[in-house]
Amino acid sequence: MLDAATFYRCMFRLAFILFLPMLLALSGCQYFTAGLPKSTETPLEEKIGQLLLVGFRGQTLEQAPTLVNDIQKRHLGGVILFDYDVQLRQSGRNIASPSQLKQLTSDLQALSNLPLLIAIDQEGGRIARLKPAQGFPVTLSHRELAEQADVRLTFEHGKKLATTLATFGINLNLAPVVDLCSNPDNPVIARLDRCFSATPDQVTGQAGAYIAGHHQTAVLTCLKHFPGHGSSTTDSHQGFTDITQTWNEEELVPYRELIQHGRVDTIMTAHVFNSHLDANDPATLSRPIITGLLRGVLGYEGVVISDDLQMKAISAHYGLETAIERALNAGVDMLVFGNNLSYNEHSVEQAVTIIQRLIKQGKVSEARIDESWRRITMLKRRLTVKEQRKHSDDLRTVDVHLQGTVSTESE
User: Fold this and answer.
1) What is the DSSP string of 101-113?
2) pLDDT digit string, tens, across residues 176-200
3) Which residues are catalytic?
């Protein structure tokens, strides 16, 4: 006799198999977020700038004059911080010490007339931009957290980690990773201890606790990498990554559960190719996957963030203009240019110009830009004290429910 959880998973799999083709075929339809702000008084150029999240070089504003101009004149939506410059092969790109970082983030926010998303990859363990050597606390990897088999400890660790981020002015952590540990030899996920478990329910429970800890300190989170990178055998940073033969629908379970429980702030796409989901493009550029599957099947209405568009899985196979066009039309809301794998000081100006041209040519609609701008605006509203406090209160009941469920299943 099937228990309730197994029955639910079986029913989800059946529904997925039966209805996904129909939903993907209908993915040309628009999926709008309810209750979004009006945008009639916001210039198009400002909306476009809000769709960009970029990396830069410099530990102070004086070292990043182009970025200053991008924030003030081009209305840049967000920045991403790194401790190491991959291209230059040297440490100290944006982060040198706690006091320096706090000054940098404060100065960045002061430049912007809207809340600036200041993002970082602080997953924990080996993937941590704030390191003990620079004066920041030690963190645990996702695998280490899961091995403790106690979501209360994961919650506390997530809260401690997020407290560090909030203290130093970082409001978006590009974590947790909800990829399953499907392939223990995965060079970019499992081998780096970035996944919690191979079991969807354990991933969901650990990720839910990790997120709850962040929400206690008003730091936003990001599930990654949709629709699942855990089964891959290659690294999408380095080139084309095909998961057609290794991916299965169980990799969607953490997304489905966390979305249904109202846990998700943002979701990052993966540059992975799966011909069963889209025969032409990788997930980041795929309307069937993002608008059809993520929004249509799983019901997600929040902000979708691309993985770095300068990664080889995209940049080696698509021109910049084509990648931007397809990503936007696929349903991506924020385009990431890390400027670390390769460096382009003028990436914001270039991206804004390309998007304006695509709109003028009718290849991307103003309505599509408006849709993403509204989602980003709503996300940023939650960074205000009043809205964030309300958000935390709303989540407390969900946190208790999720933790109780996971604790029971883990025992």
Assistant:
1) HHHHHHHHHHH-S
2) 999 999 999 999 999 999 999 999 9
3) 237, 307
